[in-house]
Amino acid sequence: FLQFVFHTYTAGFTLLNGNATTKSEGYLPHEKQIYYGLGAISYAACIGALPFIFMNRYTLKSSLTQVVLKRILPASLLGLMSAFTVAVVRSPEFEDGIEVMDRNGKVVGVSQKAGEKAVKETTLSRAVLFGTAFFLPAVLMHFVERRKFVKTPHALASVRMVLITSVLAGMLPVSLSMFPQCGEIKRADLEPEIQSSTEETELFYNRGI
């Protein structure tokens, strides 16, 4: 359930903060986009919950297996599924294309290749943000528990929350600055009709968040 809530929030945030080319006044998401989004959220929640279901169902004797299933795998899957939901929710951007502009802000055309590049960049930044924000604290908590720096469950929960919050706060500006908000793409990498409509060697697009 918590996985479902998390991916629902991130999918909604992604939908609201994507490129606005396909949006107009009174815009509502495409019916297909809503179905895709719900499917992506459900799939991501199920995949993210698999390690915990496996741990509850089977008794794990190996300490290495416990570390992998309890610490490493859930954080890795969370980052991967966060990237997956971004790609699915923003799929209209590389299907329909997004606006590309010259240096003066004049719209030159609508490009699927620019849309694909924008979605790929946002997908990677989101994976880095959530993957690191949950992977690094999980590894650190393993050493904290092993060294027995903190013994009570409440103290361990507080330490875990502080670590996650600290890493997330540190990774947020890193994630946002991985790629510029106003992305650049070479004219030679765009569709022929856009290449023939301008002499600019580089064009620009809004990447979204």
UniProtKB/TrEMBL annotation:
Task: Check the record and name the InterPro entries matching this protein.
Answer: Mtc
Give the GO biological process terms.
amino acid transport; mitochondrial transmembrane transport
- On the tree of life, the source organism's domain of life is Eukaryota
What's in the GO CC field?
mitochondrial inner membrane
Keyword vocabulary terms for this entry: Amino-acid transport, Membrane, Mitochondrion, Transmembrane, Transmembrane helix, Transport
Q: Which GO terms describe its molecular function?
A: monoatomic ion transmembrane transporter activity
Task: Spell out where the chain crosses the membrane.
Answer: 34-55, 67-89, 127-144, 156-179
UniProt record similarity statement: Belongs to the sideroflexin family.
- Put simply, this protein is called Sideroflexin-4
From what organism does this protein derive? Pterocles gutturalis
Upper classification of the organism:
Eukaryota, Metazoa, Chordata, Craniata, Vertebrata
